[in-house]
């Protein structure tokens, strides 16, 4: 399989991981395959939380060593996170979201995935998106 697809699957798996224990286990499994990963819980009113979601993706990726603290790396995470959020904005605009964002990288391939519950009171929906960027090694 293609490396970019493997990285996208990894990011999605991290976003889907329901517990910290499962997240840690998946990160270790990915590490053995040469894929670095990070995840962060997110939630709030969708439109108002977009900057926070992007910031959390960047902070988690730096903290876990997925990216270096360099402009091209930070920009790749920010751009992929923004793209993933744009994919679900039609469904989530004006509503509350809660879920997780996953970031994965192998070599020059970087992917960000989001998995959200979207809703208002008890009228819930689900939204999933993933975006890919290339970043220098």
Gist?
This protein is an alpha+beta fold and 137 residues long.
Could you please describe the fold and organization of this structure?
- The protein has 137 residues and is α+β, with helices and mostly antiparallel strands.
- It is built from four helices and four strands.
- Helix 3 runs antiparallel to helix 4 (71-92).
- The protein has helices spanning 3-16, 20-32, 46-63, 71-92, and strands spanning 36-45, 96-106, 109-120, 123-134.
- The chain has a single domain, classed as 3-Layer(aba) Sandwich (Hut operon positive regulatory protein HutP), CATH 3.40.1510.
- The radius of gyration is 14 Å and the shape is globular.
- Strands 1-2-3-4 form a four-stranded antiparallel beta sheet, sandwiched between helices.
* Mean of all residue-level pLDDT scores: 95
Strand content: 25-35%
Number of strands: 4
The CATH architecture assignment turns out to be 3-Layer(aba) Sandwich
Strand order of the largest sheet: 1-2-3-4
CATH superfamily: Hut operon regulatory protein HutP
Written as H for each helix and E for each strand, in order along the chain, the element string is HHEHHEEE
